[in-house]
TrEMBL record:
Conversion of 1,4-dihydroxy-2-naphthoate (DHNA) to demethylmenaquinone (DMK). It comes from Amycolatopsis bullii. It catalyses: an all-trans-polyprenyl diphosphate + 1,4-dihydroxy-2-naphthoate + H(+) = a 2-demethylmenaquinol + CO2 + diphosphate. It is an enzyme of class 2 (transferase). Belongs to the MenA family. Type 1 subfamily. Pathway: Quinol/quinone metabolism; menaquinone biosynthesis; menaquinol from 1,4-dihydroxy-2-naphthoate: step 1/2. It is a multi-pass membrane protein. This is 1,4-dihydroxy-2-naphthoate octaprenyltransferase. It is found in: Cell membrane; Membrane. Its EC number is 2.5.1.74.
Length: 296
């Protein structure tokens, strides 16, 4: 372990950015691009800008959480990926700087995207996304410590991510886009739910009152199963309404059996880590297949 003044290695910084969470940033943009194509409004460079905004935002969120949880001592006995501050491999100020740079980059790229689209009211949504990223675990009363993290993830990495990607290209949204937004939001929330299920014991000990600590172990497992079911219900609705190939998304369910098995057999601790990975991959696969299905 490094002392406060030491620098983490490049591999530790990469791990601290939590690459396994990147599907949460990529999936909403992919689904949004598919919906934009269906509206005959695809713009590759606006799509790339939207993707860069989303990636910068989630990396910023991860570093900000690392910093805020680390200085509070929440991560001292954490089970899961490396935490830079909690493990003392990086100075808190260095992690804070990384968080602010990432969130700042998201803000600048978002400003460019809003400027070229001409929809200036989106600046408000962008500002809310950045504030939401910081105050999830930052500030005196972080809302993630009071059970509102799942709602924020659903809104920011579901509704805002998908519908924002569509809107900056098409200037409008569709019912299919809304269905994709809800589906991706549920998947993304399921990833956080699995994460918080794993952390219930340490979160209770540190006083972090997540939704999982409030629902309890079994209630959180039921919530996870409900969340991953919603996207496939929406697939069925799209299939039998306007998009006959929306059922392609059912193929993404092939990535979920191990996650469901872990949830149903009351797996705990590190046994739940694959559930986070597989749920994220299923979300990304669902988004890709939805984008294809909406346009064939």
């Amino acid at each position: 372990m490094a002392l406060n003044g030491a620098m983490a290695s490049l591999s530790e910084w990469i791990e601290g950015a939590r690459p396994r969470t990147l599907p949460n940033a990529v999936a909403p943009v992919v689904a949004g691009v598919g919906a934009a194509i269906a509206l005959d409004s695809f713009s590759w460079w606006r799509s790339v800008l939207a993707l860069l905004v989303s990636l910068s935002l989630i990396v910023g969120v991860n570093y900000a959480n690392d910093y805020s949880d680390g200085i509070r001592g929440t991560d001292e006995n954490r089970v899961g990926p490396l935490r830079l501050v909690g493990s003392k491999v990086a100075a808190p100020k260095a992690v804070l700087t990384a968080a602010l740079v990432s969130l700042g980059l998201a803000g600048v790229l978002g400003l460019v995207l809003v400027a070229v689209s001409g929809h200036w009211w989106l600046l408000g949504m962008g500002a809310l996304c950045i504030l939401g990223a910081w105050f999830y675990t930052g500030g005196k009363k972080p809302y993630g410590y009071y059970g509102f993290g799942e709602i924020a993830v659903f809104v920011f990495f579901g509704l805002a991510g998908v519908l924002g990607t569509v809107y900056v290209q098409a200037g409008r949204v569709s019912w299919a886009a809304l269905a994709c937004a809800v589906a991706v939001g549920c998947f993304s929330t399921a990833v956080l739910t699995a994460n918080n299920l794993r952390d219930i014991p340490t979160d209770i000990e540190s006083g972090k009152r997540t939704l999982a600590t409030r629902l309890g172990d079994q209630g959180t497992r039921r919530l996870y199963l409900a969340l991953i079911a919603v996207p496939f219900v929406l697939s069925g609705i799209l299939q039998f309404t306007t998009h006959s190939l929306a059922a392609l998304t059912v193929l993404s369910a092939a990535l979920l059996p191990q996650s469901v098995k872990a949830i149903l057999r009351d797996a705990t601790g590190r046994e739940l880590i694959p559930a986070l990975r597989d749920t994220g991959l299923a979300m990304l696969a669902w988004a890709v297949l939805a984008a294809v299905g909406l346009n064939l």
